[in-house]
Amino acid sequence: MSKKVTITIDGREIEAHEGEKVLWVALDNDIFIPNLCALKEKEHPSGSCRLCYVQVEGRPEPVTACTLAAKEGLSVQTRSPQVDRLVKSAFELLLSNHRLGCGRCPRRKSCALLKIARERGLKMRLSRLSALELDVEIDESPDTFAFDRSRCLLCGRCVWICQEVAGGGPRFYQPRNNPPGRHIPGGQPGPVPLYRMRALRRSLSQRCPLF
Predict the structure, then answer these.
(1) What pLDDT shows up at residue 154?
(2) Suppose 49 and one of 37, 134, 152, 183 were both cysteines; which one would form an S-S bond, judging by CB atoms 3.0 to 4.6 Å apart?
(3) What number does CATH give the domain 4-79?
(4) Which pTM does this prediction carry?
């Protein structure tokens, strides 16, 4: 068990385990930091959504809270002009690749995007970017639910579950920096179903930010 340290978040002194990620320290103490890709079980956070920026005292640039380790005397602010600008840009990038239409979406009451928008005063519409064309089919191959790629945020949580928790179940995933048709190692060319194992449904539904 790591030793306890005291860190400061938004002026509050909080006790945490040394090395614990600041994102989880904040969330466990009811301090909101937007995030989509983070999973507490992941030993090495990907930081891919770029939403959890915080300003660290003594550092010129914001850093991602999911990768920032707690240490004695660490002091961070969850809001600053730089943080807000980065989060707003990352949020709009996500929206540009996401089929909007919240009023008709069956997941609007549990949507992580809507929660982030409310907490940070962000708009669920594009102002600086153009929406990407999303011509994709809904994968209804699973027995218990359907997978709509036009609403997928590419957070990677389901991929990690399939690879690490379920030992490499079937999956389809196209990372943000990959061109169309290119898949993660182990994927297959063409429209490969993301889930086939019913046992995964509970884990996936608990962790998908839009479920």
Answers:
(1) 77
(2) 37
(3) 3.10.20.740
(4) 0.76
Q: Which residues contact 104 (CB under 8 A, 6 or more apart)?
A: none
Distance CA 131, CA 134 (A): 9
Q: How far apart are CA 137 and CA 71, in angstroms?
A: 47
Strand partners, 15: 6
Token representation of residue 211: 């479920």
| Cross-strand pairs, 54 | 63
Residue among 137, 136, 199 nearest 162 (CA):
199
Instruction: Determine phi and psi for 21, rounding to 5 degrees.
Output: -70, 135
Residue type, 133: E
